[in-house]
TrEMBL record:
It is a multi-pass membrane protein. This is Large-conductance mechanosensitive channel. It holds the Pfam family MscL. It is found in: Cell inner membrane; Membrane. It comes from Parvularcula maris. The keyword Transmembrane applies. GO terms for molecular function: mechanosensitive monoatomic ion channel activity.
Length: 146
C-alpha cells in the first residue's frame, strides 16, 4: 500500500474529520475568548485599578528612555517586557481551560447517564453443544466415563 493510499484511508476516517472540525471551532472559540478578555473582563478591572490598561503595562529594559505606550516603545525598537499582555493571555488561557473543563464534565455526565440508562443484557445461555461438552467433561472428571 502506497503512502497516498494510506493518507486517503486516514483522511476519510471519521476521527480525522472530527479533529479538523474541532480545530476550526477551537480557532473561532479563541477569537471569542480574546474578545471576552479584552473587551468585557479587562475594562472593569482596569477601571477598578484606576484606569490601568493591562495590555499597555510593560517594563522598559533601558531605564534611560521613556515612552507613552508599549506600542511606541516597540516602534522605537526598545527591549521591553510586556507583562500586561502576558497577564491578558493568562486570563484568556484560564477562561479557555475552564470552558473545556465544563465541556468535558458535561460530556462525561451525559456518557454516565446514557450508560446507567442502558438496559442490562440478561446472561446468555450457552449453546446446547457447549452444555453437552461440559457434561461430558464433568462425567470424565468424576470417573464415570460415558
Amino acid at each position: 500500500m502506497g503512502i497516498i493510499d494510506e493518507f486517503k484511508k486516514f483522511a476519510v476516517k471519521g476521527n480525522a474529520v472530527d479533529l479538523a472540525v474541532g480545530i476550526i471551532i477551537g480557532g473561532a472559540f479563541s477569537t471569542i475568548v480574546k474578545s471576552l478578555v479584552d473587551d468585557i473582563i479587562m475594562p472593569p478591572i482596569g477601571y477598578l485599578t484606576g484606569g490601568v490598561d493591562f495590555s499597555d503595562l510593560y517594563v522598559n529594559l533601558k531605564p534611560d528612555s521613556e515612552f507613552a505606550s508599549l506600542d511606541r516603545a516597540r516602534e522605537a525598537g526598545e527591549p521591553v517586557v510586556a507583562y500586561g499582555l502576558f497577564l491578558n493571555n493568562i486570563i484568556s488561557f484560564l477562561i479557555v481551560a475552564w470552558a473545556v473543563f465544563l465541556l468535558v464534565k458535561g460530556m462525561n455526565s451525559l456518557n454516565q447517564k446514557a450508560e446507567s440508562e442502558a438496559p442490562k443484557d440478561a446472561p446468555v445461555e450457552p449453546p446446547k453443544e457447549i452444555l453437552l461438552l461440559e457434561e461430558i467433561r464433568d462425567a470424565i472428571k468424576a470417573g464415570k466415563g460415558l
